[in-house]
Amino acid sequence: MARLRAGGWRRWGWALAGGVGLATMGLGLRALGVGYPLEGMYGRLTFWLGVPAVFNLVHEVFGYGSLAKNLAGLGTLGLWLLGHAALFFLYPRAPGVAVGLAALGYGYFGGWGAMVGLTPAFWVWARWGMARAVRFDPSRRSSLKEIALLPAWLAWGQRARGEERVVFERIPGLSREVTPQAELYYVSKNLAVFDPDLRGRPYRLEVGGLVERPLRLTLEELRALPAVEFVHALICISNPVGGELVGSPRWRGVLLRTLLERAGVRPKARWVVFESRPDGYVESLPLDELPAEAMVAYAIDGEDLERRHGYPTRVLIPGRYGMKQPKWLTHIWLSDTEAVGFWARRGWSRTAVVRTMSRIDVPADGAILGVGEEVVIAGIAFAGGRPLERVEVSTDGGRTWGPAVLKPPLGPYAWQLWALPWVPRTAGAHELVVRAVEVGGRVQDPTPRRPLPDGATGYHRVRVRVR
């Protein structure tokens, strides 16, 4: 019985090792431009995770960071390994069925190249590798342990009053007015390891479709065009109330209208379509809704975009959530029809207009404050380009409100810093609340809503204790 158990474990070890080996071989084929089945499996899994109802449920449990995405990656790897183990065990009983199922899986998730490249390797391992497991010498168990550690190498994750007294730069914990590139939030539909990497590769930005003069511009030619630079807040549609998926960097690039004027837009054009071919990502916007400040950005604070932020270029569309602004931009098309975006096809907003938001940066939730000791309540506010009239803060859970000091913005699409000096007079629990008010008196939507499909709404609340 012990020998049978040992033999079973050895077969499992060899089966899992075969799955790891095929995953590694697939990575090598991916470098040659062949579709990677593991990546395709991950894409199908995250497709369903991206459906708003499922997305909200998953992120309610795991939060809005990268944890859920990394767990999906690990889950995909687990399915790959278990699926291969099952096929290897099936092979001795039904070899044709096992090989056929493997080929279908490679083809469905990775395409013909993956099917042709991986199916023979599967057959070789199933035919001779698993047979070796039966003859495996127990004295070589240390080698099996080393093989079992190989999945670690495939890790998928890679993470007012008192206005004259307010000096925003001296408020500890308050967001910077201009977000450095290193601190800008990162969101991608991919695991980071599979994000497009166009560094050191030939690059052309094509402008085509319903235009008179199609363009094909290198990065150097793009940089030679008249450039603009401004501070532009970027926010993810999945940012929850009080979340950190928002930043306000100083971008540099070329206005989209400059490119469209050079290309000559034909009268039939109604939509501008943005495509990142390396990322398989498409978005579109009605041509008559394209803001004058929309740009193709290639730098932040004078530095090239980092790979994770879209090197060499990305789209910036003021007033829209990040999902409408593709990274790794390769094509701009003028069309008479809409191209439904990657996330819109999964039920997310087609318009993705930014909702007015405000956030308390300091004090932190759960902070302990002293009776009679002044503290500065401070944070950021943004309305997607709609000007703000004021920011109001409540220290009693929203029963009464007072105006905060609102710093003028660095531009029409930059976020604004705000602050309110406060001296708590009574001990106990206090709930701090913030809301923004647009010019004209429109108050930020107080209704608590999850981020998807249209963006989160509600007031940010922070609970502190005064002693």
From TrEMBL:
The keyword Membrane applies. The chain crosses the membrane at residues 12-33, 71-91, 103-126. Pfam families: Mo-co_dimer (PF03404), Oxidored_molyb (PF00174). Coiled coil: none annotated. Residues 200-343 form the Oxidoreductase molybdopterin-binding domain. One of its GO terms (molecular function) is molybdopterin cofactor binding. This is Oxidoreductase molybdopterin binding protein. It comes from Marinithermus hydrothermalis (strain DSM 14884 / JCM 11576 / T1). It comes from the Bacteria. GO terms for biological process: sulfur compound metabolic process. Residues 358-465 form the Moybdenum cofactor oxidoreductase dimerisation domain. Keywords: Membrane, Transmembrane, Transmembrane helix. Signal peptide: none annotated.
